[in-house]
Amino acid sequence: MVILLVIHNIGRGLATDVKFRWRGPRPFVALGRTEPDPGPAEALATGPLVNGVPELGPNSKRVTLCGQFAGIYAELERHGGAMPVIVEFVGGHKGFLGVRRRHRATFDLEVRSFRGTMDRQSDLH
Questions:
Q1: What is the mean pLDDT of residues 38-66?
Q2: Is residue 123 part of a domain?
Q3: For residue 110, what are the CA distances in angstroms to 92, 101, 102?
């Protein structure tokens, strides 16, 4: 099973200066790792998870390949099963002074919930 990470602006306005901060290791890709103990994954050097996204319009997406389930699962298990990620962006309606706010959200990147599920075609391709 291949895991994709989707960065999706679900809002009605333009999101700018979209950045990701990782608590723990840098974002990684785990391709060609299907065995039970696949070894460490390769850190990403570039792409939207590392460099951010300058602008993301309403309903716009960036799709990033994270790798194969076994490799991602093993790498996340090395770090407690989940990786906290902080997403920050500027967006929303302009306020009284014509300035848009900086927003911040934190979520856990995990793949345990995929264990035992069936592989299926994604709506993204």
A1: 87
A2: no
A3: 28, 28, 25
